[in-house]
Amino acid sequence: MPEWVADSSLTLTGIVEGKSDVAILRQGDQRLFVKVGDSIGGGYRVQSIGNQQVVLAGPQGTVILRMGGRQ
Q1: Contact (CB, 8 A) for 15 and 22
Q2: How far apart, in whole angstroms, are the C-alpha atoms of residue 17 and residue 3?
Q3: DSSP state letter for 21
Q4: HSE-up of residue 42 (Cα within 13 Å, Cβ side)
Q5: pTM, whole model, 2 decimals?
Q6: Structural domain containing residue 22
């Protein structure tokens, strides 16, 4: 698994809803498919996957990724 860092280059490009929702994240030219509880590097963990956003919890607080960008 690549060592991903939750920063401004990390974007949410899609969400697949189902029994276990899956978020599709992109950093540069790499894509990662994650579920709630997955670690994405840099000490961040996927806290929740919603309709149009993903919430990450990490050492510098909470990061909310919205479809196509970050807040």
Answers
A1: yes
A2: 25
A3: -
A4: 16
A5: 0.82
A6: 10-70
CATH number assigned to the domain comprising residue 18: 2.30.30.830
User: Which pair of tokens denotes residue 48?
Assistant: 């929740």
Question: Residue 54 has which token pair?
Answer: 């993903």
pLDDT tens per residue, the chain (71 residues)?
A: 445 555 557 889 999 998 999 999 988 888 999 999 999 877 899 999 998 999 999 888 898 999 866 55
Q: Could you give the dihedral angle defined by the CA atoms of residues 67, 64, 7 and 37, in that order, rounded to the nearest 10 degrees?
A: -100
Q: Report the alpha-carbon distance of residue 2 to residue 25 in Å, rounded.
A: 12
Tokens describing residue 20: 């276990």
